[in-house]
Amino acid sequence: MKCDYCGNEITGSDYSYETGGHKVIKSKTFALPFKCSRCHGTFCASHRLPESHHCAYLNKPKPRKETKNTIKSSKESKKNPVYEPTIACNSSSHWQPHNPSEATFYMNDNKYIVKKKTKFPFVAIFFTFIFVLTILAIISFSSSDGNISNGNTLDSVPSTVFVKASGEPITLIENQSASDPTWDELIAFLKEDDTDRILYQKGTFVCADFAEKLHNNAENAGIKTAYVVVDFTDRPEGHALNAVTTTDKCLVYVDCTGSTTALDELDSFDKIAYIEEGKEYGVVSAYYTNTPDYEFYNLRKDNVRLRGFFESLGIVKNVEIYWEL
Predict the structure, then answer these.
(1) Which residues form the AN1-type domain (predicted)?
(2) Nearest to residue 229, comparing CAs of 160, 288, 142?
(3) Is the pTM here over 0.85, yes or no?
(4) pLDDT digits (tens, 9 = 90+) for 123-145
(5) What is the CATH number of the domain that holds 317?
(6) 199 in Cβ contact with 260 (< 8 Å)
(7) Residue 314 burial by CB count (10 A; 0-12/13-18/19+): exposed, middle or buried?
(8) Which regions of the chain are under pLDDT 70?
């Protein structure tokens, strides 16, 4: 057998018959050949020591066998790791916690850094959101009664067409569920409505009263209706009427201002108004027309034999339509 370091044969001079194959060196008995407990190499007596054969594991600790005590302590360290806060030195030359959201612990001679999770206040945000929605619902409910609003008053506009004959400002209701009708649905509503049968009397019931009443009746019937104001170039006072957007014939102006004299049972003052700025204000009975186009009125206004045409109020200067107040 050769020495792993010098390569020489381990001769019999290293063998002692007196000790049964062992050689006595400095009053100690060693078995031949020598086995290094670190690198597990085979060496002669001259190179038996780790320093002699330049053992590769000279600077490393010798592996030790685990005993019952070491196994027990290892298990306990896993169950109960030691925690300590991570600290760092600052400019004031004293020690303070480096980051309170982190912690360092040691387990089995290993160092671990644990970051503590910050819980986001989802519960607080949720309840804040519910609180805001509740406040908004209370405000919305206090300003409305079901689907129909309590009424909007046009008292901020300094015009006589926004003031009723009694001197009070007009009040319009808005039905949130109202929608646009067809032409036939609009005509059917006008036939059932009796606003046009009220007598026109200055100081009692004027165009603003008629427009307010028709607007509110239509909104209650589920028809989205606008309040319209017309100014003229050749007369100082304006005029109030209504407008409805039909699904099949677009915008329709409706003028239900009543007569100054009582109507017969079959008479009606339900009128379709034909309005364009700079042109004559035309009105035709709602039951003698089937279109809101101004050309229908313009081509027939001079034919005195046609029925259902009413006297014009003048030349239109401007038109203002109020769908919402």
Answers:
(1) 14-63
(2) 160
(3) no
(4) 778 888 888 888 888 877 665 44
(5) 3.30.460
(6) yes
(7) middle
(8) 11-32, 59-122, 141-160, 304, 325
